[in-house]
Amino acid sequence: MNPQLNPQRHVDMRYSSRTTDGAPVVSAVPCAGERVLYKLVRTSRLYEQIVQQIEESIVKGNLKPGDQLPAERELALRFGVSRTAVREAVKALREKGLVEAYSGKGTTQAVRQSLDLMVKIVQPEGSNHLAEVRAILEPEIAALAAQRIQETELVTMREAVAVMDKAGQDPDAYIEADLDFHLALAEGAENPLILSLLDSIVGLLREQRLRIFRVPGGPERGQIHHKRILEAVEKHDAVKARDAMRAHLSQVSDDSQAPAAKRSSGKQNVH
């Protein structure tokens, strides 16, 4: 927490993924023409940068008790980051007692912490456990999304694929878009429990992607599978979506096991 922040003064800053009908929303991040409170985030550890900016706004009095943050998608646009980074920032703020969420989806904090701890304790077996969990969850998520997904989530998936195509050797851009792709797929399944489960392993998924990003050809192989998954979901073909996701996870598993000598020697611009 920002050392300047009075620990006795917790701010009840309402956050919701949906705007309350008829209720005015106090924008934590100004629209065009309003005084700029925040700067675009362009460094690694994106969610921590967002947390820092919001904490500074609380200290300066720009955010007051009861203020409501804009919707998740709008925050992502205004900060210039992925929705995944926004979700992690909100969770971090909740853990500090600075934000209360009223989205009705509950919290995955305890689940996420226990999963993170478990994987760290049992390394290197933890990576294999994560791969098994993904193999159980994600093919069926893809199949459900193919049957239920709405155009909003499809647009997000298409945008994520486009960002990954342009990312080149920028791991931040590629990995955040990759996470958004899978998040949109989970949202398309229209099951809040599935979304909570995926939320609980986002940190582990990011670490996995960071480890394999420098495997030669890894991002390109991943994109082939992303586009096949997207095509199947767009056609509402559950069988092909499930098969495409299984093939993608097999590719991820192979790249995860690539010998260190085969990885690029270039230093990653991530932490």
Number of E-state strands: 2
Q: Alpha-carbon distance between the termini?
A: 20 Å
Q: Which geometry do the CA atoms define?
A: globular
Which series of helices and strands comes N to C?
EHHHEHHHHHHHH
| Sequence stretches where pLDDT stays below 50 over 5 or more residues | 1-34, 103-114, 265-271
Mind telling me the CATH superfamily name of the largest domain?
GntR ligand-binding domain-like
Spatial ordering of strands, largest sheet? 1-2
Summarize the structure in words:
With 271 residues, the protein is mainly alpha-helical. The chain has two domains: 13-101, Winged helix-like DNA-binding domain superfamily/Winged helix DNA-binding domain (Arc Repressor Mutant, subunit A); 109-262, Four Helix Bundle (Hemerythrin (Met), subunit A), CATH 1.20.120. The chain has helices spanning 46-60, 72-79, 83-95, 109-121, 125-148, 151-167, 171-188, 192-200, 202-212, 218-234, 238-256, and strands at 13-15, 99-101. Strands 1-2 form a two-stranded parallel ribbon. The protein is globular and about 50 Å long. The two termini are 20 Å apart. Mean pLDDT is 75; it is low at 1-34, 103-114 and 265-271.
